[in-house]
Specification:
The complex is a heterodimer. By secondary structure, chain A is α/β, with parallel strands linked by helices. Chain A is built from nine helices and eleven strands. In chain A, the strands form two sheets. In chain A, strands 1, 2, 3, 4, 6, 7, 8, 9 and 11 form a nine-stranded mixed beta sheet that branches. Chain B folds into two domains: 34 residues; 239 residues, MetI-like (MetI-like fold, Orthogonal Bundle). Chain B has twelve helices and two strands; from the N terminus they run ααββαααααααααα.
Chain lengths: 261, 284
């Protein structure tokens, strides 16, 4: 009779051991969802060139990437924002730059705004397109959610200390913002330049067009670094992988995907 | 030993049954442990009645989201409940059997559509319609209310239909025998008699509307501001967790768990009320 009392314990032990197992052989990369698609693409090519290598990519966001490296869960963290002061002890390398495009609906006649005007729109000070020389219609402001690397980079580059209006519509991906701006003639949003296509209009900032060329020669001011972060100076297979990403082949792959090495 | 063998299936089932209860205990315990510290740090009053939500600046006030949740659920109730109750009256009193056999499974099917599909449909049809014909960005309380109204229909219809069908036959026969018309019988005898069941149906429907996340994220706009009209975007408690959980770390994550606690309490109160009402009726 008594011995059956341990049955639940045995079941629990079985369950736990089933969850535990499996040793890690590959490289674990985690972090920014903005960097994720490019990292996946790079990993695919890397595994093709070096059969046997295994790179595992997962998202979570820039902060998750930093934390994962810090706690040792991931070998490499991806970040789409610069490291904050208290994260400075980590090792990082810029794998590419990504422009931050301010997008509006293609039917909107406006095609140039100053950084101050964008700030005024996002702070809720300017609420009608007519104040900027457009049609008489309310501006539908679209932003990313708190915690997103794209949002924190936008805040840093455009807003400074001014707050994004709480009335802004919030979506949690580049894709959702693009989709809404495609359909809403009076909307404005910000997304990664790499995912801009003809369904939306990327406006000029202070007269400078949002293009890869202009980011590279630093005339277009809204860009952010894509970082790979490690806890310490990388070595072994992690170093091999990072070297591959920074090599000419890696750069070509990133350029073909719309990034700026 | 032999007695034990006889009872063995009972123990196994007990174990499995306990696992479902322990899931509840685990989840409750977890969100309380993770969410409570921030509520005590920020202060319950500041957390629940605070007007500003800006985790990056250390501001955690969820009052606009409580208003958002209430307005969206209320809107869903205003649209969905009358339709649902009328539909259940139709099914239990007026519909010929042929129609009922088509209607009932169709309504069950409505409950089986994944919420992301509702959200997507709302984004493609309802949102542009509101934007073009009523104004505003389209992503709004109204859009979410319409979608949620459709989503709560199966709950409202099936529970109120069951409570109408469960009424003793004598009620209807007696009323008709006294010379009441069919409609008068429904209006003055059957609906009052089935009242507690119908109220429970409404409460459970509203509870479903409050708890829905995926469809709402896609069409409600998620702006953390007090709405001025039903065409304004709002954020609900569920969408706050859904939209920010991906990137949240540290205190921000705790604040999302704390949002979960508030949501949990609201749903518990609603469900308990519904159970209390139905139980009171069965005692009679």
């Amino acid at each position: 009779m008594k011995k059956y009392k341990i049955l639940p314990l045995i079941l629990l032990a079985l369950l736990l051991s089933a969850c535990g197992g499996g040793s890690r052989t590959g490289i674990v990369v985690a972090g920014s969802t903005s960097v994720q698609p490019y990292a996946e693409y790079l990993a695919e090519e890397y595994e093709k060139i070096f059969p046997g290598a295994h790179v595992e990519i997962s998202g979570g966001g820039s902060s998750v990437g930093v934390n994962a490296v810090e706690s040792g869960v991931a070998d490499i963290g991806m970040s789409s924002r610069s490291l904050k002061d208290y994260e400075d002890h980590l090792w990082s390398v810029e794998i590419a730059k990504d422009g931050l495009a301010i997008i509006i609906n293609p039917s909107n006649p406006i095609d140039n705004l100053t950084r101050g005007q964008i700030c005024a729109i996002y702070s809720g000070e300017v609420t009608n397109w007519s104040e900027l020389g457009g049609n008489d219609a309310r501006i539908h402001v679209m932003a990313r959610e708190e915690g997103s690397g794209t949002r924190s980079q936008f805040t840093e580059l455009v807003m400074g200390n001014i707050r994004i209006t709480p009335k802004a519509i919030v979506q949690n991906s580049n894709g959702a913002i693009k989709q809404l701006v495609t359909n809403d003639p009076y909307s404005i949003g910000f997304i990664s330049l790499g995912v801009v296509d003809e369904s939306v209009k990327a406006i000029k900032i202070d007269g400078v067009a949002a293009s890869i060329e202009n980011v590279r020669n630093r005339r277009y001011s809204l860009y952010r670094p894509f970082l790979f972060i490690t806890k310490e100076e990388p070595e072994g297979k992690v170093k091999d992988y990072i070297d591959f990403v920074l090599s000419d082949i890696g750069k070509q792959l990133l350029i073909s995907e719309g990034l700026i090495p | 030993m032999r007695k034990f063998k006889e009872n063995l299936p009972g123990y196994i089932f007990l174990l499995l049954a306990l696992s479902s209860i322990s899931a509840l205990a685990l989840i409750t315990g977890f969100i309380v442990v993770r969410g409570a510290p921030i509520i005590t740090d920020v202060g319950l009053k500041e957390f629940v009645f605070g007007m500003s939500w800006a985790p990056s600046l250390g501001e955690y006030g969820i009052f606009p989201m409580i208003i958002g949740t209430v307005s969206v659920a209320l809107g869903a109730g205003l649209i969905g409940v009358p339709i649902g109750i009328c539909c259940s009256i139709f099914l239990s009193e007026f519909a010929p059997p042929v129609i009922t056999t088509i209607f009932r499974p169709a309504i069950q099917l409505l409950a089986g559509i994944p919420s992301v599909v509702y959200g997507f449909w709302g984004l493609i049809f309802i949102v542009p319609f509101i934007r073009d014909y009523l104004g505003g960005p389209g992503l709004s309380i109204l859009a979410a209310s319409i979608i949620l109204a459709i989503m709560i229909l199966p709950t409202v219809i099936s529970i109120s239909e069951v409570s109408l069908l469960a009424l003793p036959k004598q009620y209807k026969e007696g009323a008709l025998a006294l010379g009441l018309t069919h409609w008068q019988t429904i209006r003055f005898v059957m609906l009052p008699a089935a009242k507690s069941g119908i109220v429970a149906a409404v409460i459970l429907g509203i509870g479903r509307a409050i708890g829905e996340t995926m469809a709402v994220i896609m069409i409600v706009g998620n702006a953390v501001a007090m709405p001025e009209s039903i065409l304004d975007p709002v954020r609900t408690l569920t969408t706050n967790i859904g939209i920010e959980m991906g990137y949240a770390t540290g205190v921000h994550q705790e604040a999302l768990f704390a949002t979960g606690i508030v949501l949990f309490i609201v749903i518990m109160i609603l469900n308990a009320t519904a159970q209390y009402i139905t139980r009171k009726k069965s005692k009679k």
